[in-house]
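Hi C.,

You asked whether I'd gotten around to modeling the 238-residue construct. I have! Everything is below, sequence then structure, no commentary in between.
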Amino acid sequence: MNCMTPSARGRHLLAGTPLFSACPPALRDAVAARLIERCYADGDTIFLRGDPGDSVMIVTSGRVALRLTSPQGREILLAILTEGDLLGEMSLLDGRGRSADAVALGGCRLLVLERGEMLRLLRQSPDTCLKLMELLTDRLRRTSDQLEGVALFNLPARLARLLLDLSETPLAGSASGRPTLPTALSQRNLGLLIAASRSKVNLQLGRWISDGILRRERGGLVLHDLEQLAGIAESGGA
């Protein structure tokens, strides 16, 4: 579903995102007037690998999964994007097709800006260019950490690293204030992020629940003992 975003709402949403917070207010206002808001239901395809990279998107609510699928149907999950994250930045810069599939995890909303408009903004705002470089570098570091975990760490360490990483993103909070993984982040999705089967992820989560490291709460899984999780993550392959 598409609907033109009112300029005032667009300005407010842009100002709260890491990339556009560095943009001069006058330029940000001009960008806000050209934004389109798109809404997706759980499981909707946002774009597929190879689709034209004719726009850049910002997640304003919900989550988006970036994934690759082989001709045989095997999947790998590259990242889960949350509020404020940028989507489609590779195609923005090189003008080539999308490098992965993007799928909605639960309902989500995106702000969409045509590639030409975004390039025009980058030419006028060096600070926004630098911020984009920072965001791209952060994405690259996360991908490097993910590959390191798959290659060098055992499953408990990989899963602990993932849960701690997710706890640093805008997640729901429990009554105790601890981060809560929502039900949209299924055990299958967690497994795809760390190259593990759903059954092995389920078994490990069950052990941590028994040990009090995690706690089930209506609507999600509470990361109850972040300190123990950090210790498991740091143990690596031990």
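If it helps when you're writing up: The longest strand covers residues 55-69.

Thanks,
B.
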